[in-house]
Specification:
The protein has 206 residues and is mainly α. It has 6 helices and no strands. The termini are close together. This is Phosphate transport regulator. Belongs to the UPF0111 family.
């Protein structure tokens, strides 16, 4: 790790950890959505909105700290990229839940549970990895596994699309469900963006 003679602002580590923990909360709400009937989904969506607002607050706090700090623990553009990608994950998860409610989806398509399980696992790994930014240790397995999960998410997404277009659903229902599974796929991509940013930071700091 590079030697520094100047002190660094260390509160970023805690804020990144808090943001990642909030994503775990969001992933649990997604899992809860799977087992909920239509009448319970509005309340889950409300809690997801609250979690998304908390994520926004965490992101704004990071940006504020970034703008007010003379010395940062790593490059400013990487701090911005990491915070933005974490925020994107919450945005996508909240949007997916909101659309399930707004579109009045009666039954989620077979296979979406696998998609959400991948997101939940990626959320856990991301939350475990953020504290390790302090020492830049034990991170290699994290970004390798998240990239593997993103590849798995791609395969699940393709299978979901094939299922949606197999003639079981009418055209309008296909459009609704496709938008939801596409957004969940974007969440998986955002997890990979976070992992790639962490890898970039670790390489620079090595």
């Amino acid at each position: 790790m590079r030697f520094r003679l100047t002190p660094r602002e260390t509160s970023f580590y805690d804020m990144f950890a808090a943001s990642a923990d909030n994503i775990v909360t969001g992933s649990k709400l997604l899992m809860e959505l799977l087992g909920a009937d239509a009448s319970a989904r509005a309340e889950i969506a409300e809690r997801m909105r609250a979690a998304e607002h908390a994520g926004d607050d965490a992101t704004h706090a990071i940006f504020h700290q970034l703008n007010s700090s003379f010395i940062t623990p790593f490059d400013r553009e990487d701090i911005y990229a990491l915070a933005s990608s974490l925020d994107d994950i919450m945005d996508f998860m909240e949007e997916a839940v909101d659309l399930v409610v707004l579109y009045k989806i009666e039954e989620l398509p077979k296979g979406i549970d696998q998609q959400i399980e991948v997101l939940a696992r990626a959320a856990e790994l991301t939350a475990e990895a953020m504290p390790n930014l302090r020492t830049m240790s034990n991170l290699t397995e994290y970004w390798i596994e998240v990239n593997r999960l993103e590849n798995q998410a791609d395969q699940i997404h393709r299978k979901l699309l094939a299922h949606l277009f197999n003639g079981k659903y009418d055209a309008i229902e296909v459009l609704k469900l496709k938008q939801i599974v596409d957004i969940l796929e974007e969440a998986a991509d955002a997890f990979e963006h976070v992992a790639n940013t962490v890898e970039t930071i670790a390489v620079k700091e090595s």
